[in-house]
Amino acid sequence: MKGISGFPEWLPQEQRIVDHILGVIREIFELYGFGSVETPAVEKVDTLLSKGDDHEIYGLYRLADPQGGRQRDLALRFDLTVPLARYVAQYGGELCFPYKRYHIGPVWRGERPQAGRYRQFTQCDIDIVGQEELPLAYDGEVIAVMQQVFSALHLNDFVLRLNNRKIFFGLMASFGLENIKAGKVLRILDKVGKLSLADILQLLQLQALPKTLLQILMDMASGAGSSDLQELRSLCDHREFQQGITELEEVMDVADEFGATQNMIVDLSLVRGLSYYTGTLYEGTLKSHPSLGSVCGGGRYGNLVERLAASQKSFPGVGASLGISRLLSILMQKEVFRGLRLTPAWVLVTCQDRQSRSAYLKLSRLLRDGGIATEIYLDQKSLKAQMKYADKKGFPFVVVANAQELEAEVVVLRDLRQKSQQRVNWDELVEVIEKKIAEQ
Amino acid sequence: MKGISGFPEWLPQEQRIVDHILGVIREIFELYGFGSVETPAVEKVDTLLSKGDDHEIYGLYRLADPQGGRQRDLALRFDLTVPLARYVAQYGGELCFPYKRYHIGPVWRGERPQAGRYRQFTQCDIDIVGQEELPLAYDGEVIAVMQQVFSALHLNDFVLRLNNRKIFFGLMASFGLENIKAGKVLRILDKVGKLSLADILQLLQLQALPKTLLQILMDMASGAGSSDLQELRSLCDHREFQQGITELEEVMDVADEFGATQNMIVDLSLVRGLSYYTGTLYEGTLKSHPSLGSVCGGGRYGNLVERLAASQKSFPGVGASLGISRLLSILMQKEVFRGLRLTPAWVLVTCQDRQSRSAYLKLSRLLRDGGIATEIYLDQKSLKAQMKYADKKGFPFVVVANAQELEAEVVVLRDLRQKSQQRVNWDELVEVIEKKIAEQ
Hints:
In chain A, 40% of the residues lie in helices and 20% in strands. The first copy, chain A, has two domains: 12-337, Bira Bifunctional Protein, Domain 2 (BirA Bifunctional Protein, domain 2); 347-439, Rossmann fold.
């Protein structure tokens, strides 16, 4: 039996760390008032395809009915944004706007099996969706939340690159290039970082662009141009271009005011391939792990919901998506997470005397009733084997008692971290353990 | 745009209740030392089919490659037990035995769409798996945990019916009926409660069973027979039958000792269709909702892992599965859950003066830094509209301040539940709100 390539899973001790990390992320999302939502893993194929981009989607069929077309209209979601758009389109009348939600859950992509490619991975998304309008200040909030998440995960070399799509489209429009031509250039810029600058130049040259524009685009691609927004204003006086710069300034200001003061840089070469963004764009990377590429990203979308449902209303939104699966291997190496308690229970109650099972069970109930997570070892093994189990699983405390001790309602409490032990009466046991837990 | 039949999802306020309920269940599982695991949604088709029973499995195909057979070997899991068996077979060498795990997650069944049938639903499973042996006492623990879960969910009319498969097979063997014949009779008994007793009788008569046996089986099916285990012993002296009664007695004793004293009854007609059970069997129902049928069930399986992987070792296990999706509609009507706070944030900071955004943001940071989940309303609406939003979303507290108050670092704190308000200095705000939260 082998695991399936592309579908990661964890050993119990690792899963404890994963659960802790997802809990930290959830806590920060809720600290800002985002509420959770869980949509089904399955959406209609039509809904998923409405996003336009080509994705590796897994369709579903009934195994008992392999040729049957009746349920061929269902597929697994490939991100959490399209399901959000469908949810807003469907329940818009019952939601409070601005609608702030987070969604932590798996998505699936039918990649051909290859090393380093996940076919199921976990996304942590936040989005804020307005009705008719959504102030730009919310773009700054989303950025601030993501920055706080990376701080809380002790990933302090996180860098967030920012752009605004209006800057690019305004620039193109000022040279009379729109729609198809602009789209072609955007797809070339999307390859910055993947292809060499020489290759980018060659691809741009094939587009027969004005020389000035080519120079500006290559400055963007190489980072040779200014990243000072006031200086950039002089590049082009097209209204949309200037609007993009104004928005970018405001978003960075609000993010600052929200407390996100570090590691934000303007990067005009950032385009993000996804076609639904209409304004703010951002993408995060880790300086220490450039090979990971983008670890979070997102932006402003003006009309995602409307693309799914004919609606009289518009629902502009802004969001960010953090791909946690690829980060987990890095996070699990960190001392701060490796130091976690790797078993859910604090105490293992060992059983030496098989005639006294009911007394051992009474003792473990006493601990649980006191709110202390407790496992009782019911397998009839030697005390030595039970201590080995406690050690291997990482219990902080072990309770040992023989028949005489049970009779006298007293136990030996072993503290496996302090490597100490003490005799404790049953009626003081919860209190003694609570105190030890508080000290750790 | 319509939701997809069979794939339930929730509005934000309902989702808060669902999250709370799953949190309660998780906490009880961990109180007994069960650790979480999350296996992928996807398994190999061969693994899923190894369980033998016929299930409505959803297979996967790549949408871009509808005829391609290459990835046709993958499918969505239909329960959490088969993935557990595969996990133990795969990582057995790295697990601590007895291995206690819980898994809360969705499963999928490719049912044809019809009212009341879910195609995605959430299971809450606990299992304990041993290596070579697993004392019967663990069967009692699993029962006790499930009883505590139903108590914590305020479902006090929960009844757990118990049986042991050895009783049935021992009885059949004492009449010289084994394997195929016994299997046929078992499948008829599995229909008790779904068919009338007259229909059961007719089906059994077709099997040409000895008259004494037919009478015993009909007594089982109708509940007319004794449920006193000592009396039942006299029915049949076959070794396996007597062994089944002994095990049933011990499991009920241990469950008692674990604290599960209520609502357990012996029901010899309980067979549970799934073919992998080898001993203890149980099934829970709610007296007030008989139409729901079984709301949890499980039992002892002797060789589930071995059926998946040729192994030198045996891995006996015992588990229980709680189907939470069908319970949610009942639970959400309960006053105790409806009284929950339906927004993750405690405080809404309103913004009256658009020139003072940075001061409002500073105020909301002050609250968050104090650990109080806080949403700031950044849309430029009237205070009245903002109060309406706070009320609709269910915020307990609203902070109001005009430009002069911001300047003086003072706010008006409105308590929407108490319908009161007070002026509070910024430096006392966290403390005042914490105190109010503690009082609620």
